[in-house]
Amino acid sequence: ILFILYICFFFFQAEDGIRDAQESRGLGDVYKRQEQQQQKPKTSFKFEELEEEKGISCIVCHEGYTYRPNDILGVYIYTKRAKIQDEESLLHLNKTIEQNGISSVTHFTPIHLSCHNAAVKADKALKKPKTEWEGAEIRNSHTKCNNWLPLRGPKTSDSDYENSLVKFFTCLESTGQLSQERLWVIFNDLRNLLTKIAKQENLSKDTKGGTIEHNIKLIPLIMQLTLHFFKKPANKEKSVIYASSLENLLEKLKKKDIRNITPEILYTLLTLALFAMDTDKWFKEAKYLIFTTLMKLAGASYRAEIKKAQVQKGSKQQPFIVSPVLEPEKEDKEPTSFLLNEEQKQNDQSNEFNVIAQPHMIFVWLIESIFNKISGSKAQTPVINIQEVLETFLTKNNEKLLNDFEEIGSSFKNEIVKKKSVEDFVAILNLKDSINLEYGSIENFINELLLPKQF
Question: Which of 66, 83, 182, 364 has the fewest CB atoms nearer than 10 Å to its CB?
Fold first, then answer.
């Protein structure tokens, strides 16, 4: 028995030794392979070789048109119903009829439509589900939104852009039918946005978010959409009709005929000039005629307010003797406290006139600034086919496009809103020589605006 046990013990030791040798040999092979791999030169990862994302990027995936050139990127917007002028009556410079249109503002949060749709699906699957726009509001920096507007990329085809608009118009029409053609509605959305900016309105009143800089960057997106509809075969004649209306307006203004002309009409036609007027016409003729006409209309509004204030106060003073914001002093007070010297009166008159005129002057400046960006280094040189140049400007380089409008926003915030006087804007718009030629001096022009006469 002891012999048998000894044999078994010897056998199992030998087997363990063989197994250990095999396992060691196997591990040795592994170690050998690891050493060989370590000896191989490593391929270093060079971040500088990656192409940097240019322009705006999606709030969800952080990619834009550099990495996903065929995936449509857009921004969240808030759109509400607004009254717009009837197209036909306006183009004929008749008394305008109000129709249903839209007015849009933004916090300018970029997002791919595909990323938005995926996020909506995820929001609905939550334990406490969110609606589409409740979830979007969170992604939109807690700023209210109810729609998505595409930004056309350099490689976006007409068909892909058209398909992306289905989302936009589906959301838009869910609030009711539009009373005008899509081209006119979208065009007037641009006009309404420019008007709000010029009047320095509170752009976050309805949304609780979104600055002037955000909304100025919305301008090129609406311009892209407007131009898209201009290019449709059904709207081919529209460009000719609009250009003709602008020519008729300029001829009317050359004759000093401003019957039926209002600032609202001129705001619309100024916006229309971006799509239907060559740059040479704008810089050399239209800018001056429209600016001076708006100043005359501002002067008429100012005089009307003076007259109304005098009637309400029972004043027998001649216009412009006393500022309408100053209340007459009671008889028991010193009479000298009521009288103003001539210089003070002139300053008060100018300041009150400037309050009325400033939005008009800013609106012209906005159009001028966009024309300058469209023309680029060729500013104030003829551009005959404005829509062809406009298409290149709006689609070729998104990064430069948005930077251009950021520059406009920066100038607006840091410089333009601080300018109040006609003299300031005449200098900014380079109109001094033209005004001196017609009126002799800027002072003569301003005095003529303040005099109680009909233009």
Answer: 83
